[in-house]
Design brief:
By secondary structure, the protein is mainly beta. The strands form 2 sheets. The chain has a 31-stranded antiparallel sheet that branches. Strands 1, 2, 3, 4, 5, 6, 7, 8, 9, 10, 11, 12 and 13 form a 13-stranded antiparallel sheet that branches. Strand 15 and strand 16 form a beta hairpin. The longest helix has 12 residues. The protein is globular, with a radius of gyration of 34 Å.
Length: 710
């Protein structure tokens, strides 16, 4: 027997010879029995390997079997970023396997706590248990009578190194009470605990809907991972006033370069009293097909597909509920594929395919677009840009500091009524940046040549056109810096930097050589000569901890060739444009403000105001205010958002959007939420001129949630 007292570090070479690396053991006391076949370490025993760190009050090591018997232990598993603790466990060093009876496990990254019986960690770093209690709430793992606010009792629990967990979910508990119970005789699909985005086959949490136009509704999503790369979510929703809304979504990622999301919603509207409004398409079969696909076979070559087709525009607004509603889909596409959806109030939906290739300064792009039009005009008169080809030589230096760029575009557009055909355009641009004294300058000149060939020249006397023009521009600015030190009362001082930047720019565009020609894109809308001078002033104030505390910009344009029409409001018809003012204030994180305004010199005075204000942790938790006023368009809109935490656990949210011209609320919403460390309960009401909806939310931290959040 060998007895060592105190804090001594031992490195065992001969005893642990079969282990891949020698173990470093720290203990207050070490004993050897049975001719060194059994070693016992006591008192803050620490054992460390490359995959885990073990702490225990007492450890017994059996040399022949290479078993560690741990007493009152805690294991830090580096592979799972998890901790495992209990009263007694067996650890096989040769295969790195673990057995324990009553074990508490904490996954740090996901915040999930697991109390398991008969836990086994195998050589594949998988954790298996006959039964486990899973929750994200804190609870006493040693007290058998202590239950968290909510928990899942799972049988045949499995946790892999990839974080995928599965098991037979048999009970959902609130405290000690079982709220949902599935007997073994019933069909219960395997469910996944969402420690990672992966989910296993089974039903997801239901979603509930209530509204004047929809009635009561319930949606029960079913998730089916066809393979590891392809999955489907079928989410039928039954509505008492509209019938059955079918909802299907698929997400896929085939190998690394190909991924996408596709969604389809369909409803056969059997309601007799359909809403009839001017310009509304009154259809019985309503549907929406939307999706985005990305394919990047090479770093400099990628292809993209956007699909957005709908039976009628009102479908997106009326059925913005459930798993694949417009609002939730918009967020999903933005987060997953970094592309959002067009606003649901837009008169057309855009489907597009494009591919792009670049190498050095060479950039090329092919594109095909289809506009699914749902406005008041005739669909047959909508011009469809079916084919677009672009070839660009991006800016590159040629002679000295001279920068050259060249572009070539080919467009083919079609429509059933009106002219259609080809447009070929080329543009050569030269830019020369230079500095004189304290001024930074740039001179640009470009020449554009367009060729039109109409397959159907309806409305034109000829089918081919040539249009050419040139434009030149010159910009110049100066920057002045000054540092200020201002003494304040009570021996305080503030230091700030003031940046003063005046600028002036001149732009001239020659009137096109052809006065009457087809309009295929926005460039063709400009048919007059442009001769404009713009001048303005930037000012920036910076503090050490607030680099963009205050920005001020004021600017105006003068048009040399504008016609002085006394009654004209549009700035294009008067020599002096509106005087524009922009103010940006950012005192992070408590205060932010943006103001945009314009002053008209021809009778309207202050013509436009736009104010966005954000205040955090002052007066109340959050205040958001947006005010817009435009005399030219006769619009005045106010949007207000308020949020306040009450008694640490309750949060109130209020949202108001009001049309001040019509004196009508476009939307008003009020919500009350109870916030717990591991769950959330909320509800409220949303009122619009067309509908009133009640909504609620139930969110279990780490497990997801259900309900409707409008």
């Amino acid at each position: 027997m060998v007895l060592i007292l105190g804090s001594i570090v031992f490195t065992f070479f001969s005893v642990f010879a079969s282990v891949s690396k020698p173990l470093e053991v720290t203990a207050q006391k070490l004993q050897a029995f049975n001719n060194f076949k059994t070693l016992v370490a006591e008192g803050d025993v620490v054992i460390q390997t490359d995959k885990m760190l073990v702490w225990a009050k007492k450890v017994t090591y059996e040399v022949p079997t290479q078993y560690l018997i741990l007493y009152q232990y805690k294991i830090f598993d580096f592979t799972q970023n998890a901790t495992v603790e209990g009263d007694q466990a067996f650890l096989d060093l040769r295969n790195e396997e673990l057995w324990g009876n009553n074990v508490f496990m904490y996954l740090k990254k996901e915040g999930i706590r697991i109390k398991a019986k008969d836990l086994h960690k195998n050589a594949l770093n998988e954790y298996l248990a006959k039964s486990a209690l899973v929750s994200t709430c804190e609870f006493d793992c040693e007290n058998e009578r202590d239950f968290p606010p909510w928990s899942l009792e799972v049988k045949d629990f499995i946790l892999t190194p990839e974080g995928i967990s599965s098991g037979e979910a048999t009970k959902f508990k609130i405290k000690k009470q079982t709220v949902v119970y599935f007997p073994k005789t019933a069909y219960v699909p395997k469910v996944s605990l969402p420690m990672t985005p992966q989910r296993s086959t089974g039903f997801l949490f239901p979603k509930f809907v209530q509204g004047n136009r929809l009635g009561l509704g319930i949606q029960l999503p079913f998730f089916w991972p066809y393979t590891d790369q392809v999955d489907f979510t079928f989410s039928p929703m039954f509505l008492t006033k509209k019938g059955l809304l079918l909802d299907l979504e698929t997400q896929f990622r085939l190998l690394e370069p190909l991924e996408g999301i596709l969604k389809l919603r369909y409803l056969k509207d059997d309601e007799k009293a359909l809403i009839e409004t001017i310009g509304t398409e009154n259809k019985k079969h309503k549907w929406w097909f939307v999706g985005k696909v990305d394919y990047a076979p090479k770093p400099n070559l990628d292809f993209h597909l956007d699909i957005d087709l709908v039976s009628n525009k009102d479908f997106l607004e009326e059925f913005d509920v459930g798993e694949n509603g417009f609002s939730s889909s918009k967020i999903l596409f933005l987060e997953r594929l970094q592309r959002s959806l067009e606003e649901k109030t837009q008169e057309y939906r855009t489907s597009r395919f494009w591919g792009q290739y670049y190498r050095g300064s060479l950039y090329s792009r092919i594109e095909n677009t289809y506009l699914d039009y749902h406005g008041n005009s005739d669909k047959d008169s909508v011009l469809q840009p079916l084919w677009v080809f672009r070839l660009n030589l991006l800016p590159f230096k040629t002679l000295g500091d001279l920068i050259t760029s060249l572009s070539f575009n080919h467009n083919y557009s079609f429509r059933k009524e009106g002219y259609y055909g080809h447009k070929i355009s080329s543009n050569l641009e030269l830019a020369y940046p230079f500095k004189t004294s304290f001024l930074f300058n740039e001179l640009k000149a470009s020449y554009t040549l367009n060729y039109y060939s109409l397959d159907d020249p309806k409305g034109f006397e000829k089918s081919t056109f040539n249009k050419s023009y040139y434009d030149v521009s010159f910009t110049s600015y100066a920057q002045f810096f000054k540092f200020y030190e201002v003494d304040l009362p009570f021996n305080q001082r503030i230091d700030f930097l003031h940046v003063f930047k005046p600028y002036i720019g001149y732009y001239f565009k020659k009137k096109p050589s052809e006065e009457v020609f087809p309009v295929f894109n926005y460039e063709d809308l400009t048919k007059e000569e442009i001769n404009t001078l713009e001048y303005g002033l930037w000012q920036v104030f910076r503090l050490k901890n607030q680099p963009d505390l205050l920005k001020l910009k004021v600017y105006q344009q003068y048009q040399f060739n504008a016609e002085e029409i006394p009654t004209a409001i549009s700035s294009e018809k008067r020599k002096f444009s509106d005087l524009s003012l922009q103010i940006l204030v950012n005192y992070a994180p408590n205060f932010s403000l943006r103001y945009d305004g314009s002053y008209n010199f021809y009778g309207l005075g202050f013509k436009k105001h736009s104010l966005s204000l954000g205040i955090n942790d002052r007066f109340i938790d959050r205040i958001g205010l947006t005010f817009q006023d435009d005399k030219a368009w006769n619009s005045r809109q106010l949007t207000l958002y308020l949020s306040q935490r009450l008694a640490q656990r309750f949060q109130t949210d209020f949202y108001l959007s009001r049309n001040l011209i019509r004196e009508e609320n476009t939307e008003m919403r009020f919500g009350l939420t109870y916030l717990h460390d591991c769950y959330l309960l909320g509800g409220g009401v949303s009122v619009t001129p067309k509908d009133t909806k009640f909504f609620f939310r139930v969110e279990l931290k780490g497990l997801g949630g259900y309900g409707l959040e409008k």
